[in-house]
Amino acid sequence: MKTLEQTVAQHRDEWKVRSLEQQRLEIENNEAVARLYGLEDEIPSDVPLERVSLTNNSAFRWPNKTPEERDALFAQSAIVDLVSYAVGCMFGRYSLDEPGLILGDQGSTLNDYLAKVPHPTYMPDKDNVIPIVDGDWFDDDVVERVRLFLRTVFGEQHFEENLRFVNNALGVRDLRDYFIKTTGRGAASKFYDDHVQRYKKRPIYWLFSSPKGSFNALIYMHRYTPSTVSTVLNEYLREFESKLEANLQHQERLAAGDGTPREKAAALKETERLRNVLLELSEYEHDVLYPLASQQVAIDLDDGVKVNYPKFYPALRKIAGLEATDD
Q1: What is the 3-state secondary structure (H, E, C) of 261-275?
Q2: Are 305 and 203 in contact (CB under 8 A)?
Q3: For 185, what's the count of Cα atoms within 13 Å in the CB-facing half-sphere?
Q4: pTM value surpassing 0.85
Q5: How far apart are CA 196 and CA 206, in angstroms?
Q6: What pLDDT, in 10s, does the model give residues 18-63?
Q7: Would you list the DSSP string of 282-324?
């Protein structure tokens, strides 16, 4: 089986051949028109590759870049698309076993998916909630699900090599950094920024996010039900808080134990961080998520994202300009 890097390179080379062929056809067309009107010496027939407007023509997409830079940007774009597709498979929007859209109706369920794909190669998430946090705290964590996707599609043999290629293409040291990366102001999600841009500020995956981004969870709006927020609250946020509480107690024991000064200082620093995170999550639960879950909010997809998404503020990550954009 080919590595992911080899597959992307083959895809890139195929598009180069298509782009050159399209360039040749456009030049021939210009020459034919010029001959027809006797303008061979007056109108140039040449068509720069940068003007051949095919979607995956690297010269057209990045006209001011070098060939090497174009190749790197092509790989990055291909991997961003692949991760987006993987998340779609996680939610049952797409399937490795059937072409096209699988779940795209309001209130779609896992049973609806299994009715169309009875024996899926890659099983969608059961409860329509995929957590994104700072470590491997959940079995269905988004990073674990992407790793499983890579193993399922491209095999175990080249898994580590493929994972390194994904990280390099995305420009991150660890895949988790693409989904959530701590910054001075909280946490950023390049994945969600890419998703919002892809759907022109009408995201189909919605990101629950605490104020500083210590807790995040994706849902698929077509599988949303009035109980979805309760699932985020009870099965994920509170579970995450319980795990962090246990870790806090562990760090406190380390800080007070017989370790080296460096180990005790590190434990003390981690203790302080965990206390701040737990305070953030407690306030998010009490002030935002619990009241929202109690409302059992219903949505009508026909109203569109512009109407429905803000109903969940401030539980969801705010999308700048959502209200100002036109349907």
Answers
A1: HHHHHHHHHHHHHHH
A2: yes
A3: 2
A4: yes
A5: 10
A6: 999 999 999 999 989 888 888 877 778 899 999 999 999 999 999 9
A7: HHHIIIIIHHHHHHT----GGG-HHHHGGGGTTTBPP-TTTTT
